[in-house]
Specification:
The chain is α+β, with helices and mostly antiparallel strands. It has helices spanning 21-27, 30-33, 38-47, 61-75, 81-96, 100-119, 121-128, 155-168, and strands at residues 7-8, 18-20, 58-60, 134-140, 143-148, 172-182, 185-193. α4 (61-75) packs across α5 and α5 (81-96) runs parallel beside α8.
Length: 195
C-alpha cells in the first residue's frame, strides 16, 4: 500500500501514438453511431475512420482526435465544446459495459472500489491506447488528484471518462474537476462520498 500523497508514475510515451480498436468500438456503440448524421459518417471516413466497415486494430492519435471533434460537433452542435467532449467521455465509458472485455474490466473495478481503481488508472488507460499516462496522488480516503499527460486540448473528455467510470465502480456523489492544465496534459481533482 502506498503512503498518502505518494505518486504512482507511468512508463515513457511511445513514438507512434495509437488508439486500440476496442476503445473506438466503445465510443461507436449503437447509441452513438446511430445518432450520427450522414455528413458525420462522410467526415469520419475522410479522416480515416470508416464506421460502416470493420474497425481496424488501431488508429492514429490524429485520426482519433479529429474523429472526436467530428462526433462532438455532430451530436452536440449547440453545446459548449468542453461540455460536448465531457459527454463524449461519458458515452465512451457507457460503451465499455457493452463488450465482453469491458464487462470484465468493470467487474474487476467494482471489486477494487473507487480508490484502488483510480490507483490503477494508468494500466486502464494503457489498455485503451499506447500513449496516455497518468500520475495518481492520494489526498485523502475519498479524494485524489490525477494528472493525465495528453488530453487533446479538451480536458472535458477525460473529465467525462472519470465521472462515468466512478459511477460504474459504485462511487457515490463523485465529482471530477479540472484543477490545472500543463502543456498537453491536465490535473483533475477526483472525490466521492464514503459509504
Amino acid at each position: 500500500m502506498r503512503a498518502l500523497g505518494e505518486q504512482v508514475r507511468a512508463e515513457p510515451v511511445p513514438q507512434r501514438r495509437l488508439i486500440f480498436e476496442h476503445t473506438v468500438s466503445w465510443l461507436l456503440q449503437p447509441a452513438v453511431r446511430l445518432r450520427l448524421s450522414p455528413t458525420a459518417y462522410a467526415a469520419l471516413k475522410e479522416v480515416g475512420l470508416d464506421v460502416t466497415e470493420r474497425l481496424r486494430p488501431a488508429y492514429s492519435f490524429d485520426t482519433w482526435r479529429r474523429s472526436l471533434a467530428i462526433i462532438a460537433a455532430d451530436l452536440y452542435p449547440t453545446t459548449p465544446l468542453d461540455e460536448s467532449y465531457r459527454l463524449l467521455g461519458r458515452a465512451l465509458v457507457r460503451g465499455v459495459e457493452l463488450t465482453t472485455m469491458g464487462r470484465a474490466m468493470v467487474s474487476m473495478a467494482r471489486l477494487l472500489g473507487p480508490l484502488r481503481s483510480l490507483r490503477r488508472m494508468n494500466e486502464t488507460f494503457r489498455s485503451a491506447d499506447n500513449y496516455v499516462e497518468s500520475r495518481f496522488t492520494q489526498c485523502g480516503p475519498t479524494h485524489c488528484e490525477l494528472w493525465i499527460n495528453e488530453v487533446m486540448d479538451r480536458p472535458g473528455y477525460y473529465q467525462g471518462v472519470l465521472e462515468a467510470g466512478l459511477e460504474l465502480v459504485g462511487a457515490r456523489d463523485a465529482r471530477v474537476e479540472v484543477l490545472s492544465r500543463d502543456g498537453d496534459g491536465a490535473t483533475y481533482s477526483v472525490s466521492w462520498r464514503a459509504k
